[in-house]
Amino acid sequence: MKKFLIVLAVIVILIAIVLVSTYNGMVSKKENIDSSLSNLDVMLQRRADLIPNLVNTVKGYTDHENEIITQVTDARTKLVNSNTLEEKATANEELTDSLKTLMLVVENYPDLKSSQNFIQLSDELAGTENRISVARKDYNDAVKSFNTSIIKFPNNLLAGMFGFEKASYFEADENSVEVPNVSFE
Question: What is the domain count for the chain?
Fold first, then answer.
């Protein structure tokens, strides 16, 4: 009887270790998602901070491109004021589209394209866009790892017990594949 109790105690301890380890693994993956989202937010904010300088530089060289400048400014405001992941993703795509259009407009202003200030801002913006892309990939990788973890057996049992739910990916808007239409009428 004593051996049975010892074996039973060892089994209970092993199960407890597995449960604690599994729970801690899910918590770590959830924290990784939060950290990745925070890094993405920092990059989105960096881009949003560069936009006013870029817009002011473009304004200095163009007189009749107010519509696109307004679009960029409005899209930036939406991004800065977004709270949810879905709002951020939508605002990010809108800002990306309006920046693409702005860069197409800039092609018609050789003096602007050769301006040192514009070149520097464009380079910073391009670097930030690359960082956003990496941060977005890192976030989505963290989401994939977490989501995969909580749907596998036996983790799915613990995930349900402790309220872990699938995280959302930072996805591109389905309209983002459309090329912006620029008209110089």
Answer: 1
